[in-house]
Design brief:
With 178 residues, the chain is an alpha/beta fold. The protein has one domain: Dihydrofolate Reductase, subunit A, CATH 3.40.430. It is 22% helix and 29% strand. The strands form two sheets. Strands 5-4-3-6-1-7-10-9 form an eight-stranded mixed sheet, sandwiched between helices. Strands 2-8 form a two-stranded antiparallel ribbon. It is globular, with a radius of gyration of 15 Å. The relative contact order is 0.26. The structure holds NADP nicotinamide-adenine-dinucleotide phosphate (NAP). One of its GO terms (molecular function) is NADP binding. It catalyses: (6S)-5,6,7,8-tetrahydrofolate + NADP(+) = 7,8-dihydrofolate + NADPH + H(+). It holds the Pfam family DHFR_1. Keywords: NADP, One-carbon metabolism, Oxidoreductase.
Length: 178
């Protein structure tokens, strides 16, 4: 993989942040198959002030840069210049840009925020996973890679909780690499 050898050279841990259904689904038709204000708050708490790295499709699905965070969007030739984001034409470049920006701003981590293509290419580089396990198994077309227990150890868990306007209960899990 092109990005091998990067981990540790970025000066900040790589943390994958994702909401994942019981069946591994994270997305359906360019969107998320649930409405979870509790998880949006959790996501904001985790990522505020940290550089975030995402794929073009996730950026288009969010629709605008996330405020208070350096937004790095990885895209081949498809995405032109967009105000408020740093565009990277390879994942490696994206992680380096995020590392540089984050170190300059005293960030604690590089937050990789999806989607499926980007998680698949970064899970082997990641130091930590912040997984919101969603208590539902929806139909979908985009998946989180398998979290192999031989590589990952659960170190924190909160929940299940279900806010009034959440469409499912969620459990917040932290995994660290063994
Ligand atoms: N549940 C969650 O926590 C969560 C989080 C994020 C997203 N999602 C969902 O996931 C879905 C989107 O995921 P996705 O897998 O379809 O797309 P994605 O990973 O968001 O973006 C894919 C795009 O990123 C670019 N890309 C990927 N790898 C690259 C590389 N190595 N170098 C350069 N560019 C690269 C390409 O852009 P170009 O085509 O421009 O080259 C590619 O088409 C949506 O349904 C979204 O709602 C869910």
């Amino acid at each position: 993989m092109m990005t091998e050898g990067l981990a540790g050279g970025l000066g900040l841990p790589i943390v994958l942040v994702a909401a994942v259904g019981e069946n591994g689904v994270i997305g359906a038709q360019g969107d998320m198959p649930w409405r979870l204000p509790s998880d949006l708050r959790h996501f904001k708490d985790l990522t505020m002030g940290q550089p975030v790295v995402m794929g073009r499709k996730t950026f288009l699905s969010i629709g605008k840069p996330l405020s208070g965070r350096v937004n790095v969007v990885v895209s081949g030739p498809t995405l032109g210049p967009v105000e408020g984001i740093e565009r990277a034409s390879t994942l490696e470049e994206g992680l380096r840009l995020a590392g540089q920006a984050g170190r300059g701003r005293g960030a604690r981590m590089i937050a990789v925020i999806g989607g499926g293509q980007i998680y698949a290419q970064t899970i082997d580089l990641a130091d930590r996973l912040e997984i919101t396990r969603v208590a539902v198994a929806p139909e979908g077309d985009t998946f989180f890679p398998m979290i192999d227990e031989a590589s990952w150890r659960e170190v924190a868990r909160r929940g299940p909780v279900k806010g009034e306007t959440d469409t499912a209960a969620v459990t917040f899990l932290t995994y660290e690499r063994r």
